Amino acid sequence: MAPTGWRSTRSVIEQLAAEAHRFDALQAITVIERLFPLAASVAEGGNAAHEVVRFRSSLTTAFPASDLSAAHPPRPDAAQWEILVNFLGLAGGFGPLPAPFTEAIIQQTRAGDTATRDFLDIFNHRLVSILYRARRLHRPALSRQAPDVGPMAEHLYSLIGLGTPGLRGRMSVPDRALLNHAGALAQQPRSLHGLECLLNDHFGVPIRVIPLQGGWLRLDDSQVTRLGQRNAVLGDGAVLGRRVWDQQAAVAVEIGPLDLDGFRAFLPGGHAARALRDLAGFYAGAGTEFRVRLRLRPAAVPGTRLVGANRLHLQSPRRLAAQTRASGVRLGGEGRLLTHSAAPDAPRLGWTSWLTSRPRQSEGVVTPSSSR
Question: How far is CA 257 from the centre of its chain?
């Protein structure tokens, strides 16, 4: 992994082979397993000879300063990394065997007889493998699987209401995008701060959620007060009109400032707009209305000509009104957004082009403005 400049550095696997003492044991094993994804994982293969790493215990009576003593890449006649560990073994300064037995094995090894040491390493390999498997069970970062696969992911899916596979894959965003915010999604009631963190983390742009955006709610015919009927008590159940004001009717989502491409992505029909609809609807439920406010950077406001290839795209009021009624401009309780069939880059009055009262710079040129 070299930097972007002209200087080059050693890769992580080269650093492991040269300076194994600088690595944590679990970290080193994870690096090697991800480098060889087709090899059998540690403590999961039936045959230890097919696993990606072979563990050996360091034979010394000295106090070790690190977890690892050495890490040797595979030899031409073998397909396994060989890691010399300091923290676990039958012999050595921390082993259960007596010190004279350890000293005898060290003398045999110096004389070229490694039979006893190799015999003990059969058990040392199994002990280290079981320890790594136990640590990996509750540490998802050490798993060879994707973050959205495995027992830990299943627990998180259950916390956020996606415990069964039939409930997943219904949104335009991957379900794994919700796992990082399982803590906020598991709370009841859910907070606006949690929604703000979810949207900011997913889209990577400034997003602010503003509560208490009032609105008029239409009354059902059965709830409208009529003269001559019962239960119309003045000041209690009587209502004048066919709608009532609710200060908690909606929540505003202010997005930006954005560049032009990001602005278009959040327009009705864009991929970011669909993701926003799904994430906000899943977090707050179907009974919440969201009013989306997009902020475009002033420098990103495009110029629009009434003639030419970048000409202004106009629609008749009747067609625009019908399109608005059919799909809705707001992200309402049913999570709907306005969609359009025009080209994505075509200027649309009020969407990606605006009229202004400032003098035009040349004939046929409209200089739009954007609020800061």
Answer: 22
